[in-house]
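2024-03-11 09:14:02 DEBUG pipeline.ingest accepted 1 chain
2024-03-11 09:14:02 DEBUG pipeline.ingest length=235
2024-03-11 09:14:03 DEBUG pipeline.predict start
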Amino acid sequence: METLAYAAGYAVFRWLRWRQGDVVDEPQRWTVLAAAAVGALLGSRLLGLAEQWPTVMEAWRSGRVLALLFSSGGKTIVGGLLGGWLGVEAAKWVSGIRRRTGDLFALPLCVGIAVGRVGCLVAGLADDTYGKPTTLPWAVNLGDGVGRHPVQVYEILFLILVGIVVGSKAKLPEGARFRIFLGSYLGWRVVIDFLKLQPLIGGMNLIQWSCLLGILFLVLSFVLGGKERNERAAG
């Protein structure tokens, strides 16, 4: 399902680029894609391991840190999004790209994450993304006889709604679709992660704190970008 998620997201990206065109030329787009991939890989892994800090501490004490670093688990979507975003911004700064390049990513990310969440649901308890116990009629039993919030299904439904917004034909400023997606998803994770069983720091898990930090940077980039546009218009 993870492989299918990447393939589905890339297919939607290629379709959108063919239908709408691109704000940057081919070499610059591949620079952006490469930076996004590297940043997402590093961010996903680092935050995924940091999120499970009790496991990391235990691995440190037992001398299994290297084995944990190269294990198949320990990745998180939020880390991938934030890492990919930072990677793209760094690559754009180095390459002198001044256009907003994220709009073509918004709908593909909705599709890719939604497909990936199907895999999270099927994986059950082993995936470590399951919800807290609940007595609601739509609770799911993941094999341990406990009814739990189907948080993966909640997220799929949420991503469908966001996908409808960012995939609409409404005229929006350049970069707005990606900011809508990223801000919405980060805000969603702050809320939905209260229904998950994760180690807490100050009442929230590390992913929630990372989401709040990401929202702060998103707001700052919007404000600073607005000032820059106003200065160019005035000049």
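2024-03-11 09:14:41 DEBUG pipeline.report The chain is about 70% helix and 5% strand.
2024-03-11 09:14:41 DEBUG pipeline.predict end
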